[in-house]
Design goal:
The protein is mainly beta. The chain has a domain of 152 residues: Ferric Hydroxamate Uptake Protein, Chain A, domain 1 (Beta Complex). Helices cover 9% and strands 49% of the residues. The chain contains four helices and 25 strands. The strands form six sheets. Strands 10, 11, 12, 13, 14, 19, 20, 21, 22, 23, 24 and 25 form a twelve-stranded antiparallel beta sheet that branches. The protein has a five-stranded mixed beta sheet with strand order 3-8-9-6-7. It is globular and about 75 Å long. The N terminus is likely disordered.
Amino acid sequence: MKTNKKTISPKTIAVAASLAAMQIGAVYAQNLNLDEVVVTASPTGRTKMKSSDSVTSLGEEAIARSGATNVADILRSVPGIRAEASGGDGNANVVARGIPMSAGGGRYVQFQEDGLPVLMFGDIEFATPDMFMRTDYMTDRVEVVRGGSASTLTSNAPGAIMNFITKNSRDAGNSVGYTTGIGNRLNRVDFSFTNILSDDTHVNFGGFQRQSDGGPGSTNYTAADGGQLRGAITKTLDQGSYVRATFKSLDDRSPSLMPVPVTIGSNGQITKMAGFDPRLTSVAMVGGGFTRDTTMDKNGNLVTSNPQDGTKSTSHAFGLEGKFNLSDGWSIEERFRKSSNSGRFNGPLGLNLGGTDIRNVQLSTSNDNVDATFNDIKALKAFDLNGGKSVFTAGLFSGTQRLAQTWGFNQYMVNLNDVGNYTMLNCIQI
């Protein structure tokens, strides 16, 4: 028997390592950018060089290069942040380095949009903040502050603040992009525009619209469908002051990527069941006709939902923001946002009973009301102290978080065929 061996020279390895180091260095150089001003968890905004916090910022170009498709994917590019996309385009588990992941969602971190929380709490079951957030061409950058001032300048965030900042510059420009899938059906349009109304007033608006089968293995129905539109109108005043009104309208549906049943051998090897590839996720599992799940609503009436709908997120928000530079070094900053949030979480959790029989627990939760109202106002006074500049800051944050949910659980006995489709055997309502 003849054996062919190919030897890789140390020189080849060194060249490959150098190229990898150059690529990693480019990514970290993008994240460092020590002269960039960071406004998250900072009383006045300061450069990374002058900040004592652990700060990472990802600009529009870095986000595009990462290929991230949702909020959790973007956070994977941030050192010290662990993001598990355990539910598709939402319901991710997020934690900062050194803090345990003691629950689903993000218990010890806070998701923000333009300096205000998306939700007051990050670990609400089936209603996590990232379910009501989407990124598109209107996302200017993401600022992440780990520890330090994150625990003192906001609530429920001892681990980190992840602030997704929207484009609001009169120099933001215009852009349109179309994305299609390779190996799966995807049609997505992203856009952002800037319109200068006068010398002191401009408008930024944009969003996205998409339809997709949810990724490889889900080709027989539209698993993701929806979009988002958001914008801001800004009027600049004297001495660097400004006022701004913002809005967001999100209506999106995405698949719930839940765990799938597999067989694990004595050697630890994972084996697919009956020709079903577990890498295709649970989207394929509900694609074969599992289209009806009947539970009770909050009034005790029977309602029927479709497990293929996955996660449904609706968010309509309106906000006001302003900064007023006064005399004698005083300034006032005000941020307000009121959002109406609702939706639904559908997802099958398959449990292997052996062979091809599966006990499927269908999770069906209606987010009847997850509305939130937040207001943050602060006053700042800059003054000289011992030859240096110091800033006195005092403020008040107030928030109202509503939560009304209706949980439904059904248990199904099903049979899984060679292509991952269900044959329903029976149903037990639990």
